[in-house]
Structure formats: structure tokens, C-alpha cells
Amino acid sequence: MEMRILMSGGDGIVSEGLRLVLKDTWPKCRLIEFEGIGKEGGLTVRQDIDLAILETGMGGSATLEEAVRSVSERAKVVVLAPYERESIETERLRNAGASRVIFRDTSLEEIRAVLLSIFALGTAII
């Protein structure tokens, strides 16, 4: 199965590590990178995707929530966040439709397990 994954384009160590995890988990995946979200939360995806990986730094929280809502109707959504695990922002992202919110202290092995569980079970259990 060729996974089609939309992810925010970043050149930081987290983004680079995430790319390696994605390619290792799904060697034939196709990464589609983008730079950010529009002011209204518009994230126009012209291709079918299986997974979207969004970062909190791409816009205000309301903008990110709207992007999660629009994409979660047709793909799994993972958000990379610096928030506290039990914060209002984290809860809003989950309510908007994020399959999982991953935090900065999550190891690459845990990220791999989260990604696999999302597709195996429908929602992450870790």
C-alpha cells in the first residue's frame, strides 16, 4: 500500500526525524510537503491523502483547529505540539478531529507505534 502523507515542510531535527520514521515505516510512502496554513485555516489538499501531519507553529490555534477539521473528514490527522498533555489547546485539537496529538518529548519509536496504531485500530491507543 502506498501511503500518501501530507506534512508541513520543516527542516528542523523533529521534521527530519519524522521523515525518517515515515520512510522506514512505509518505504513506498509519498510525502507531500507544504509550508503553512492560510489565515482562515484553509488547507486545500488537491490530492487524496491517507495521513496529514500538522505542526502547531503553522498558525494560530483557531486556524490549526480549522485545518484539522477540514482534513480529518477524509484522512487521519496527527498534530505535533509543544503543549501540555492535558491542556485546553490539546483538547480542542482532539475535538476538532485530530487522531492523535504528539508531544515534543515523544521518542521516534513511540511515534512509529502511534502511526501504526492509528491505521491498525482507527485511533491511537498509546
List keywords for this structure.
Response regulatory domain-containing protein, Rossmann fold
Write a brief caption for the model:
This is Response regulatory domain-containing protein. This protein has 126 residues and is an alpha/beta fold. The chain contains 4 helices and 5 strands, in the order E-H-E-E-H-E-H-E-H.
**Spatial order of the strands in the main sheet?**
2-1-3-4-5
- The dominant shape is globular
Number of strands: 5
Number of helices: 4
Q: What kind of sheet is the major sheet?
A: 5 strands, parallel
Number of domains: 1
Give the structural class: alpha/beta
SSE string, helices as H and strands as E = EHEEHEHEH
- Tell me, rounded to a whole number, the average pLDDT: 79
User: Architecture, according to CATH?
Assistant: 3-Layer(aba) Sandwich
Low-pLDDT runs: 122-126
- Name the beta content range: 15-25%
* Ends distance: 24 Å
Under CATH, the topology can be stated as Rossmann fold
Gyration radius over CA? 13 Å
- CATH homologous group name: Response regulator
